[in-house]
Amino acid sequence: MTTSNDTATDRVTSRHGWQWSSLAAYALPIIFVLLLIIFSLAVPYFATWANFGNVLQRNSIIGIVACGMLLMIITGGFDLSVGAVGAMSSVVAAVVIVQFSMPLGILTALALGLLVGAANGFFIAKIGISPFVTTLATQVLVTGFLFVGTSAQPVYGVPESFTVLGLGRVGPVPIPTIIFAAVALITWGILRFTTLGHYIYIVGGNKAAARLAGINVERVLMTTYALGGFFAAVAGIVLLGQTNIGQPASATDWPLTAIAAVVVGGVPLSGGVGQVWSAVLGTLLLGIIANALNLLGVSPFWQPAVTGAVILVAVGLDSYQRKQRERR
Amino acid sequence: MPKGEAMLLEMRNIRKSFSGVEVLRGVDFSLKPGEIHALVGHNGAGKSTLMKVLGGNYADYEGEISLHGDKIRLLSPRKAIDRGIAIIYQDFSLVPDLSVAHNIALGREPRGRLRGTIGHAILRRRSAKEAERLGIRLPMDASVRSLGVGTQQLTEIVRACSREVRVLVMDEPTARLAPAERELLFSTMRRMADEQGVGIVYISHFLDEVCDLSDRITVMRDGLVVATRPGADYTLDTLAELLVGHEITGREASRAAAPTSDASEALGATQLSVADRPPLDLAVAKGQIVGLAGLVGSGRTRLARALIGDVKADGEIRVGGRRVAHVDPERATKAGLSMVPEDRKTLGLALGATVEANIVVSALGKLLSVLGFVKPGSRPRLAEEMIERFVIRPPDRRKIVGNLSGGNAQKVLLARALGSRPVAMILDQPTAGVDIGAKVELHNQILAAAKEGAGIVVISDDLDELLDLSDQVLVMNGGRLTGSYARSDLTRASLLAAISRS
Ligand SMILES: Nc1ncnc2c1ncn2[C@@H]1O[C@H](COP(=O)(O)OP(=O)(O)OP(=O)(O)O)[C@@H](O)[C@H]1O
Ligand SMILES: [Mg+2]
Fold first, then answer.
1. Atom of ligand 1 nearest to the CA of B409
2. What are phi and psi of B10, to 5 degrees?
3. Does the beta carbon of B268 lie inside 6 Å of ligand 1?
4. Interface touch B276/A16, C-beta < 8 Å
5. Which of B88, B116, B307, B329 is the most buried (most CB within 10 A)?
6. The domain B9-244 belongs to what CATH superfamily?
7. CA of A202: which chain B residue's CA is closest?
8. Domain spans of chain A?
9. What SS3 state is found at A127?
10. In a mutational test of the pocket of ligand 1, which residue from B14, B15, B21, B23 has the highest number of ligand atoms less than 8 Å from its CB?
């Protein structure tokens, strides 16, 4: 039968591509380990538990945001409003905690994050505005409301005990990192086991096919963006735990840093593919590089430039290999 | 039509327009249980649109649809699926990065142990079983992206057939299948119709297949039904005439005498080895048409892509007698080699751009511009000329290519390649999905291009097409050239035998 003939040649090609693709799949972990080794040898104080704790502590927030960003990128979109949502979450939590109680503050902030995310999803899926425009608009909108509501003043008065969430540790492990790990685990579970996760890949891979197969594309998109907003709100609460001040002007760099972390992890913006470990590893990679520069006494002004170079190199390697593979 | 017989599906007076242009102008269509009902018509007649209405793609259609006598309105794909209507669309609707197993299960994933979860293992086993039941072997874990077009089509067929279906629509399922796969598909269709009482709507431009297979045949022309009769009432000729609306005028004098052997070379390759296969030689003279025959997966497309530098290969490639060093698609195109890929949707066309933009893009750098500036008026002129030569319908250069009917999109692709006046051309399945009237037209255009001196390689699964066009036919198998025949030495039967021999 001819079909076996056809599949046989397909297999042959995939076997030829095997070594390359498996190498390419592990390029990032390899780079990561290499950098760890190099930094440990060359950078004083880098390879200490205190420093590792420090790196985790500093990067967990972006990691949480990156997990949500990953989901949205797999659907073929992204979210520029996560920073505004994070700032909103920390300010609202601060206000409600000061006025009422801690649990209510956290709940309100999370609910608001979910709501803004769902609104993003509504405009993208039901109205059909592009993710870029939609989330740019909500970012500006939310930030605007926040400045009006607070007169651009920070919110003080959150009880000292709240800093457990941002600065506390269980043994050597910072609590933000535990929250990050939990979020990453949940994201992994969603993508691996749930119907929603599977549909996220399908919608990102071929929207028309998803629709024709009877999948409710709009609902999948709305849920994904709601989750993204929710995770951003979680990150905002952790941020409040670190500073104890609800700062309306904070978190402006979250969206681009989180997108950077995901793409450095090897996830293409075109959608349809991506794994959680990419977001986690991408976050940590950017984190250790910043940390090493810091320890070496390099001016912090250099850090964006280095981050930019890392994005180009990491994503460039990945894309180049993909291109070569397609030509075989 | 006998009144007493219960209809499975009835569509009455269906109308549908796109931005004011009426594409379906009151169409009646019916389907009995266990019947294979063919729907034929020229490119752009509205066949796919009618079936898309049935699939719940257009909520704004007018008219009445009843299934088992119940009036229904089909407002979304989900509604149609829930009613047991499955459609294999003309242009694939698979998810490229997902595995074959997951694509087969698309939209009906089995539940895992908990609510809201997926049973991946169950899913894989079930998909494998469903393919096996149809007698189709597929690499379940490979991603669809890595498969050839034929295998993708089979994946789509397994997906549609394994639903709980009562109405199964196949929109040109055989346009990209090799003969043996077609036979397999036909026996599967017959079985589903006879044993399970599924009503099957079958759209195709292969009229001989249609005549052999169908219980009834409906002919559409320009958004209207012109005839619905039992299959036995038609002959190939009457069907062809009904379809085109006039008698098909014979092709312009078929192949003139083959060019003399001293004609200079248009396209050549020496010691070309693709993907570790043994090296091969190839030479196409100016004005010569070389057919490339073989089974699906025999490496024809791969060879074509190697010639244009799209996949890596070792060896020498010459265009117009001159060697192209470090060949890549850009250099090859500059040297005068152009290729029409088989997968028009993902490789061939800029779907969101206009017909004009798509037609002129290849000629732009060479014929239409001076020092990087486009000559005023030259673009619309070329586009209009090509639209007329290739009978592209509707004849509107501003129409978005993604909205054209499948066959017309294919014509745009060919018009682009021929419009740039290449030295050599590789045409991969040039008339897949093109109606018989237009096919004759396209063949004439290809022959005319050869007469003007282009060297042409035609890859096709359609043996008659190869025999009609070629001066010489090369047969490929497993990545090597296994035979070379002059046209005069070949008959349909001997060619089929040469292909199937392994
Ligand atoms: N989304 C759309 N927007 C505008 N026009 C469309 C759209 N879809 C189809 N059309 C037009 O409707 C007409 C009928 O197209 P349809 O795809 O039904 O033809 P067809 O009979 O299936 O032809 P083929 O044999 O080439 O596949 C064509 O003129 C086409 O250009
Ligand atoms: Mg069609």
1. 26
2. -135, 130
3. no
4. yes
5. B307
6. P-loop containing nucleotide triphosphate hydrolases (3.40.50.300)
7. B95
8. 46-327
9. helix
10. B23
Residues of B in contact with A274 (CB under 8 A): none
Coil/strand/helix, residue B424: strand
CA of A146 to the centre of ligand 2 (A): 53
For residue B406, which ligand has an atom nearest its CA? 1
Written out in words, the top-level CATH class of the domain with range A46-327 is mainly alpha
Residue B410 Cβ contacting ligand 1 at under 6 Å:
no
Task: Give B434 Cα–ligand 2 centroid separation in angstroms.
Answer: 9
Q: How far is A133 from chain B (nearest CA, A)?
A: 20
How far the first Cα of chain A sits from its last, in Å, is 26
Joined tokens for residue B105: 């299960």
pLDDT per residue over B157-169, tens digit each? 899 888 788 999 9
Cβ–Cβ under 8 Å, residues A78 and A254 = no
Q: Which amino acid is at A66?
A: A
The set of residues, in sequence order, having a beta carbon less than 8 Å from that of B281 and lying 6+ positions away, is B269, B270, B271, B272
Measured from the CA of B408, which atom of ligand 1 is nearest?
A: 26
- Whether B265-501 and B9-244 are alike in CATH topology: the answer is yes
Q: Report yes or no: A13 and B146 within 8 Å, Cβ to Cβ.
A: yes
Atom 24, ligand 1: residue with shortest CA distance = B43
Calculated CA dihedral for residues A105, A109, A112, A114, nearest 10 degrees: -130
Which of B449, B202, B223, B464 is CA-nearest to residue B340? B449
Output the CA–CA distances (angstroms, integers) from residue A299 to A35, A174, A291, A305, in the order listed: 20, 26, 12, 11
Q: For the complex shown, is ipTM > 0.85?
A: no
Quick one: tokens of B113?
Answer: 């142990």
B-contacting residues in A 2-21 (Cβ below 8 Å): 2-14, 16
For chain B, the structural domain boundaries read 9-244, 265-501
- A152 touches A92 (CB < 8 A): no
Q: Residue of the nearest CA to atom 11 in ligand 1?
A: B404
Pairwise CA distance, residues A194 & A181, whole Å: 19
Rounded distance between C-alpha atoms, residue A106 and residue A89, angstroms: 8
Q: What distance in angstroms lies between residue B46's CA and the mean position of ligand 2's atoms?
A: 7
Tokens 């206000």 -> residue: A95
The pLDDT tens digits for B391-450 are 888 888 888 888 888 888 888 888 888 888 889 999 998 888 888 888 888 898 899 889
How far, in Å, CA of A13 to CA of B143, rounded? 12
d(CA B475, CA B300): 9
Which pTM was predicted?
0.80
Which distant-in-sequence residues (6+ apart) come within 8 Å of A185 by Cβ? none
Q: A163: exposed, middle or buried (C-beta count within 10 Å: 0-12, 13-18, 19+)?
A: middle
Burial class (CB in 10 A: 0-12, 13-18, 19+), B182: middle
- Cβ-count burial of B91 within 10 angstroms (0-12 exposed, 13-18 middle, 19+ buried)? middle
Fold designation for B265-501: Rossmann fold (3.40.50)
Torsion, CA B50, CA B54, CA B57, CA B58, rounded to 10: 70
Residue B133 Cα to ligand 1 midpoint, Å, equals 34
Nearest to B190 by CA among B205, B220, B170: B170
User: Chunked in runs of 10, what are the mean pLDDT values of chain B (502 residues)?
Assistant: 68 92 93 94 91 93 92 90 89 86 90 85 93 88 85 88 88 80 86 89 90 92 91 85 69 51 80 82 92 83 88 87 85 86 72 84 70 77 88 87 85 86 90 83 89 92 88 88 88 84 62
**Which tokens go with A102?**
């801690």
| CB nearest B312 (choices: A8, A202, A328) | A328
3-state helix, strand, coil in chain A (%, to 5): 80, 0, 20
Ligand 2 center–CA B39 separation, angstroms: 10
What is the position in ligand 1's atom list of the atom closest to the CA of B52? Answer: 18
Q: Is the CB of B482 under 6 A from ligand 1?
A: no
Residue whose CA lies nearest to ligand 1 atom number 13: B44
